[in-house]
Amino acid sequence: MQADSLSFIFLNTVLANNFVLAMFLGLCPFLGVSGKLSTAIPMGLATLFVMLVSSVSAYGVNLLLVALDIEFLRLIAYIAIIASAVQLVEMSLKKYSPALFRSLGIFLPLITTNCAILGLALFQTFRDYNFAQSVTYALGAGTGFILAIALMAGLREKLVLSKLPTVTQGAALSLMLGGLLSLSFMGFAGLGGAH
Amino acid sequence: MSRRTDNRITWETFSEGLWKENPVFVMLLGMCPVLAVTNSAINALAMGLATTFVLVASGALVSLLRSFIPKQVRIATYIVIIATFVTMVDYVIQAISLDLYNALGAFIQLIVVNCIILGRAEAYASKHRPLKSIVNALGMGTGFTFALLCLGVVREVLGSGSLFGISLFGDHFQPWVVMVLPAGGFIVLGAWLLLFDWLKQRQALPQEEKAHAG
Amino acid sequence: MNTESAQVQQPSTPASHIIAVLTGIAMISGFLVVLTSQLTAPFIAENQRIAIEAAVTRVIPGSVSHKEFILSDDGLKPAEKGAEGQRIYAGYDASGKLLGVAAKAAAQGYGGMIYLLYGYDPACECIRGIKVLKMAETPGLGDKIIKDPDFQANFDRLDARLDPSHMALLHPIVTVKHGSKKEAWEVDAISGATISSKAVGKALNRSAQSLLPRLLPLIGELEVAGK
């Protein structure tokens, strides 16, 4: 597989360079909302959705910034469009799909401060991705986020049933679990590199 | 209301960020940079200093402008202020050292979404005088830098066998590479948290026993 | 929903005030950003120049001075601001003899783009060294492309001869599986870092294929420029 083909970008972002487990982006929701599968998956879906919207907008805005030669405003512009993208998604969901809004709505404001979104926008710019590559990258990042948060929630649901020393019941345990997940995802590191 | 207008700056103003409300070990905020850039001590130190600068500068500006900023748009305003200082730090680090800039990568710009900074602007700087906000932000920044260094030192010593780039063990040392890899970040932070929780529990135990005895 | 209730609670702030404050903040922030970018620009340029200087010295072994040129369809020009074309660096020894030419190459690696500088020696028609300028490869695996001595040895004399038509390389530069390098134009991959190694080979091949056919007819000009 070529390193800039779409399928490579997708698989690489989902598994080998998973946003949460390898790049440490989006840790707050990963640690905070991964208690139960029933909340983790809607959170993941909402994040995927916002990632797609902001990736497309960031691509457009960057073209504009480069054309006007004002790249030093990139960060401010990105954070502004992400905040507005979240607002826009929230409003349109409310209007056109109230059912979906009820299940995703409470997570949307949280996503604005999810560094995975800004990270996605910045990385796709730094890597000079074209439009199709950017969208694939966003899709892969979102899917990888859902995968990571769902795995974590599954593990934590099982852990509730087991007896643990009191000192380990807290964030420390979640982090250790995250470490083990990350370690197992390293197994994907050769993906696409084999002949 | 009387507490809000309490203008005295005490040791407490500074020190709460160091230990009692340490942003990383106690409040678990700003985890992305904590794990991502702490694969060496020098990166950890640079990231800590950059974050401290943004914390202090945005805290000062938010505090100065606190009576002008309308409630409805306060978050947007804070984010613009923070993004401004982050962009400045980004340029300054590029001017200081390209190697450092390349090592930290996009994580300098990701300081914008570090929840500590927005959190302190909202919870502290918007309610206190500039000087007090600055002192508090300095404390928080120091606490954050301290936490980053805790991780960076452990990960660099175990993972690369060096400290601040200086080799410690000589050539026969087989580095524990997993420590500088992402998985090591999670595990080292988890271990630090375990240690602190355990210490806290041990401190609490004698007090409980006393309470029972009394 | 929160914003709605906040607006209901505080109808006192007029829109004009909000706009005034936001404009004010935007002006302050714009001023600070522009000021910083202007103030730091010379330092950043200087840092980049030092980094390039060090890299050129490394990829053209023995060179003590260099000159920057812009290669475009109109031929060679001394590097100036705003000139269009590809930037190349000619390295000379103390007596002004041309030792080699360095140019930048880039390719998509494992964790992002890999940018590198490579030195071409017209005397042996080969690549004499590479220096990674910027990359985001995995620590402990992909980042071996920077330091791994066996990998660096690939570029001691990497064959980059042109074919008889002088339009392309005689043998394209390819990265081969670790331990299977047989020919002088092959790059032996690092085991466990195949993608990163391949990216380096690809970057070199792509850049050399397009640069060398245009550069070789002009080598004479570069030699004269050193005197």
UniProtKB/TrEMBL annotation, chain A:
Pfam families named among the record's database cross-references: Rnf-Nqr
Compartment annotation: Endomembrane system
Provenance organism: Thiolapillus brandeum
Keywords: Cell inner membrane, Cell membrane, Membrane, Translocase, Transmembrane, Transmembrane helix, Transport
Protein name as annotated: Electron transport complex subunit A
InterPro entries: NqrDE/RnfAE, NqrDE/RnfAE_oxidrdctase
Keyword Magnesium appears in the UniProt entry: no
Membrane topology: Multi-pass membrane protein
Transmembrane segments: 6-33, 45-66, 72-89, 101-123, 135-155, 167-191
GO cellular component entries: endomembrane system; plasma membrane
Main location: membrane
From TrEMBL, chain B:
Subunit structure: The complex is composed of six subunits: RnfA, RnfB, RnfC, RnfD, RnfE and RnfG.
Protein name as annotated: Ion-translocating oxidoreductase complex subunit E
Cellular compartments per GO CC: endomembrane system; plasma membrane
Gene giving rise to this polypeptide: rnfE
Pfam families attached to this UniProt entry: Rnf-Nqr
Transmembrane segments: 24-42, 48-68, 75-94, 100-121, 133-154, 174-196
The entry's keywords: Cell inner membrane, Cell membrane, Electron transport, Membrane, Translocase, Transmembrane, Transmembrane helix, Transport
Topology of the protein relative to the lipid bilayer: Multi-pass membrane protein
UniProt GO BP: electron transport chain
Function: Part of a membrane-bound complex that couples electron transfer with translocation of ions across the membrane.
NCBIfam families: PRK12405.1, rnfE
The protein's Enzyme Commission number: 7.-.-.-
Provenance organism: Thiolapillus brandeum
Top-rank taxon: Bacteria
Family: Belongs to the NqrDE/RnfAE family.
Compartments it resides in: Cell inner membrane; Endomembrane system
From TrEMBL, chain C:
Annotated GO CC locations: plasma membrane
Topology in the lipid bilayer: Single-pass membrane protein
A Pfam family annotated for this UniProt entry: FMN_bind
Gene Ontology terms for molecular function: electron transfer activity; FMN binding
Membrane-spanning parts: 15-35
In-chain residues carrying the UniProt-annotated modification FMN phosphoryl threonine: 194
Keywords per UniProt: Cell inner membrane, Cell membrane, Electron transport, Flavoprotein, FMN, Membrane, Phosphoprotein, Translocase, Transmembrane, Transmembrane helix, Transport
Enzyme Commission number(s) from the entry: 7.-.-.-
Subcellular location: Cell inner membrane
One annotated GO biological process: electron transport chain
Needed cofactors: FMN
The organism's place on the tree of life at top rank: Bacteria
InterPro entries in the cross-refs: FMN-bd, Ion_transpt_RnfG/RsxG
Class in the EC hierarchy, top level: translocase
Domain FMN-binding: 109-211
Family: Belongs to the RnfG family.
NCBIfam families in the cross-refs: rnfG (TIGR01947)
Quaternary structure and interacting proteins, as annotated: The complex is composed of six subunits: RnfA, RnfB, RnfC, RnfD, RnfE and RnfG.
Function comment: Part of a membrane-bound complex that couples electron transfer with translocation of ions across the membrane.
Name under which the protein is recorded: Ion-translocating oxidoreductase complex subunit G
